[in-house]
């Protein structure tokens, strides 16, 4: 028996998950394959602080995204300020490119 919520496994005879309180099932449904996503690289934006501001707004707008810093910035783990020349790229699914560009323009004032 398996909990459909937390995926905990139980011995036969137990019908309710101790953790979640939901009814156990014999088998979990097979997950559907994820759709293919075409990620678009935007930027660079100057530094982690600016990139994190963009990421926060993208999250608020429920836009999937990830950030990728240049090697030097990510290797040194600089988070408290912007190192001169540091660059961060924003990646979003292709269908969100226009909306994300608008968000970046609004923040940067360009």
Strand arrangement in the largest pleated sheet: 1-3-2
| Integer-rounded radius of gyration | 21 Å
- Corresponding CATH architecture of the largest domain: 2-Layer Sandwich
What is the succession of H and E elements? EHEHEH
User: Approximately how much beta-strand content do the residues carry?
Assistant: 15-25%
**Beginning-to-end CA distance, first to last residue:** 57 Å
- Number of DSSP-assigned strands: 3
Class of the largest domain in CATH? Alpha Beta
Structural class of the secondary elements? alpha+beta
**Average pLDDT taken over every residue:** 86
Helix content: 25-40%
Low-confidence stretches: none
CATH topology of the largest domain: Alpha-Beta Plaits
Number of helices: 3
Shape: elongated
Largest sheet: 3 strands, antiparallel
Q: How many domain modules?
A: 2
Structure characterization notes:
With 110 residues, the chain is α+β, with helices and mostly antiparallel strands. The chain has 2 domains: 1-31, no CATH class; 39-108, Alpha-Beta Plaits (2-Layer Sandwich). Helices cover 28% and strands 17% of the residues. It has helices spanning 48-60, 71-76, 97-108; strands at 39-46, 66-69, 87-93. A 3-stranded antiparallel β-sheet has the order 1-3-2. α1 crosses α3 (97-108). It is elongated and about 65 Å long. The protein starts with 38 loop residues before the first strand and ends with a helix.
């Amino acid at each position: 028996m398996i909990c459909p919520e937390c995926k905990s496994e139980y011995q036969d005879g137990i019908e309710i998950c101790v953790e979640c309180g939901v009814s156990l099932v014999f088998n979990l449904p097979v997950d559907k394959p994820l759709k293919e996503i075409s990620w678009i690289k935007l930027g660079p934006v100057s530094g982690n602080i600016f990139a994190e501001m963009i990421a926060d707004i993208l999250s608020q707008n429920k836009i999937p995204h990830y950030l990728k810093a240049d090697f030097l910035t990510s290797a040194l783990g600089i988070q408290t300020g912007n190192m001169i020349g540091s660059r961060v790229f924003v990646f979003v699914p292709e269908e969100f490119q226009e909306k994300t560009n608008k968000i970046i323009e609004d923040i940067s004032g360009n």
